[in-house]
């Protein structure tokens, strides 16, 4: 998990969310992030469907967002 200041985490999280939105995706919290040590859910904005697994840049951004949220610490 990131150990930087909370305001830096918030700023980075917002930047990730903005880029995901540009790519047509958003992040939603998922219980599997807590129960199964996985990342949170990646949602395609056009369809509202969960994308699992996402590809390329979306995967990288989703992983970083999940880590900032305290999930999938073993990734």
Task: Give a structural overview.
- It is a single chain.
- The protein has one domain (6-68).
- The chain has three helices and two strands, in the order αβαβα.
- It has helices spanning 6-23, 32-35, 56-68, and strands spanning 25-28, 41-44.
- Strands 1-2 form a two-stranded antiparallel ribbon.
- α1 packs antiparallel against α3.
- It is globular.
Provide a brief overview of the structure.
The protein has three helices and two strands, in the order αβαβα.
List its traits.
75 residues, two-stranded antiparallel ribbon, 2 strands, mainly alpha, 3 helices, single chain
Structural class: mainly alpha
* Mean model confidence by pLDDT: 84
- Percent strand: 5-15%
Q: For the report, how would you describe the main beta sheet? A: 2 strands, antiparallel
Strand order of the largest sheet: 1-2
Whole-number tally of structural domains: 1
Stretches where pLDDT is under 50 for at least 5 consecutive residues are: none
Termini, distance in Å?
A: 10 Å
Q: Can you tell me the overall shape?
A: globular
Compile the SSE list and pairings:
Elements: H1 6-23, E1 25-28, H2 32-35, E2 41-44, H3 56-68
Antiparallel strand pairs: 1-2
Helix pairs in contact: 1-3
């Amino acid at each position: 998990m990131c150990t930087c200041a909370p305001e830096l985490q918030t700023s980075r999280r917002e930047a990730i969310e903005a880029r995901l939105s540009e790519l047509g995706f958003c992040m939603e919290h998922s219980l599997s992030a807590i129960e199964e040590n996985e990342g949170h859910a990646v949602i395609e904005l056009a369809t509202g469907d969960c994308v699992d697994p996402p590809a390329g840049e979306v995967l990288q951004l989703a992983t970083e967002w999940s880590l900032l949220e305290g999930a999938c610490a073993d990734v």
